[in-house]
Design brief:
The protein is an all-alpha fold. The chain is built from three helices and no strands. The two termini are 20 Å apart.
Length: 64
């Protein structure tokens, strides 16, 4: 997911995107804890996507 794609979305869409990413992160953490996660790089990708969404939400809130 690119930041330019996120900037074109509305605030409500960003909120739902953030919620789904947080759920995915929780699911991946549970899989890692039970040693069912085969591709551990997914966790890092989701964390970075969460950071991107939060950054864009902050930018929109600041009015940039």
């Amino acid at each position: 997911m690119k930041a330019s794609e996120l900037r074109s979305k509305e605030t409500t869409e960003l909120s739902t995107e953030l919620e789904s990413l947080l759920r995915a992160q929780f699911s991946l953490r549970m899989q890692r804890a039970t040693q069912q996660l085969s591709n551990t790089s997914q966790l890092l990708k989701v964390r970075r996507d969460i950071a991107r969404v939060r950054t864009v939400m902050t930018e929109k809130a600041a009015g940039k």
